[in-house]
Amino acid sequence: MTFKNSFFFLFVILSIHFYGQEKDQVLFTIEDDSFYVSEFLNVYNKNIEIVKDENQKDINNYLNLFINYKLKIKQAYELKLDTIETYQAELKTYRKQLIEPYLRDDSILENLVKETYKRSLTEINASHILVNVNDKSSPSDTLKAYNKITEARNKIVNGGDFKETANAYSDDPSVKKNDGNLGYFSAFDMVYPFESAAYNTSVNQISQPFRTRFGYHIVMINDIRKSLGEIEASHIMIKGDSIESVEKINSIYKKLNDGEDFYFLAKNVSEDPYSAKQKGSLGRFGTGKMVKEFEDVAFSLKEIGDYSKPFKSNFGWHIIRLDNKFPIESYDIVKENLTAKVRRGDRSNFINNSIVHKLKQQYVITIDQTLLEKLTLNVNSIDKESSNALLTVQGKETTVKEFAQFLNNREFTKKIFESYKEKIILDYYKTNIDQENKEFASLYKEYKDGLLLFELMQKRIWEKSKDTIALEKFYNTTKVNYRSQDSIKGTLVISSDKKTANLVKKKFKKKTSLKDITSYINTIKKSNVILKTGVFEINNELLPLKYKLAKGISDVYEENGKFIFVNTNEIVLSSQQELNRIKGKVISDYQDYLEIEWIKDLKKTYAVNINDSILKSLINKHSK
Fold this sequence. Notes:
- The protein has 624 residues and is an alpha+beta fold.
- It folds into five domains: 3-100 and 447-455, no CATH class; 122-226, Chitinase A, domain 3, CATH 3.10.50.40; 230-326, Chitinase A, domain 3 (Roll); 359-436, no CATH class; 487-572.
- It contains 24 helices and 19 strands.
- The strands form five sheets. Strands 14, 15, 16, 17 and 18 form a five-stranded antiparallel sheet that branches. A four-stranded antiparallel sheet has the order 4-3-6-5, with helices on both faces.
- Strand 5 (210-212) and strand 6 form a beta hairpin.
- It is flat and about 105 Å long.
- It starts with a helix and ends with a helix.
């Protein structure tokens, strides 16, 4: 997601409008513009769960944010930023994207969602052969590809070995590794035509040739099983396949068996940098999402809390912990999520523009049958520049000239005219959807305001923050905020056992090397010690709370069931951070400062009046 889209998304959320049936009350005004309780409450209730700052959950504080947003939008319109050509062009693109979901027939969508849910209850193990061909291929190449896939199928049907045939015929590059076997998959894992062919073929049977955007396929079904659902798992990974890697993963496995906390180890020793930050968590996933050897082990774990023995993948050595299991839920529970996925995926090709069939029944559509009959008999018999109405939709006329331009010297057929009629119906609907659909009108206004606010923020905040002279002046004024923390260089020792921690501490006092200390730790029965060497700021969460900045070996501190001491080799005192080293942070702070000053100016420029009695009522209601 780009910066612009991220920003845009946040303000779309903030600006959601509400169309209530009951009489609304004015919560506040900005000059002569009124803003209602319903709109504010809809935004507040919709976002309260995703707001992390507890202060912003307060009605007063949230109202302040809402008013600030409306002030910015008001200024953007007064500056006529909505008339800028680039803004208009971008808004047109957004409108086209927004309108897509409204061009679909809900009944077709519902059938596809039900079909998807039924398929998600099972997983298919299948093998396939692919012969490449695409939409740009010539008719002769397309026929050649079809004949090739048909030949491959006939060989197998007549007793040929599938693996041998796949290697001889398939254009799928993975065939050299898997002999055409795709493993287990379920709904959404394959393109929709492939998925449909697989689910409509029985076990040990081979499909007829079918086509996807990749080319022609045949698929053989090896097995069908009940879906395994999804799991949530964490892992510890050690990279490589050296003797040291094997020793390290085995040492970790020993610690786990001796009672060491899995998440603690995952955070501190795993060499997968992304998951280590999450205490090893890989999140929630189903079959077909991980490499086969990893997936097989993960789904073999039976009970929550179980962890695997060390095993190897192409990425290194792993130990997996099962954190949770998610069997397939009922249709009513997953329907909303499935519907969203169907709309986003390639199934949507089957429902796009399907609304036109409903519109044919709703709209008043008239055709000049005399003109149409002349076109049918001889398209050249009429004046192609004629402004006579050939087709009228809801009172809007489309001329013979416009149809002639659409025809573009092609031969007239009733099929072409029907497609033209559907296009005109759909064009009318797209143009007038704001009047026909309040939900779309509201959503479109959100995007319109959000995009407009982006343009204004660009001018008032982001472009100004690029001024190097102004930025340096801000930095010099606020230098006190940009001093580094006191830090230490040394080793942090963490153990779940006090006696072990003291034994290791004695080694440090004797100035034993880190390498020898590490070897010593591995010889201790029930070894449960973690060594972390590096630079630690004094406020680092790993350092003991009672630790005082001092060179040498600290006391052993007990915190959260762990025994910790620090061997401090060097102290690095706080110092002034130079602008060129922290420019990103200074720019961010400067932008915050500019926005605060801007809001002050807006509140001086535009009169804001809050209905105190209504606000008091809202606070009382939402504080309960």
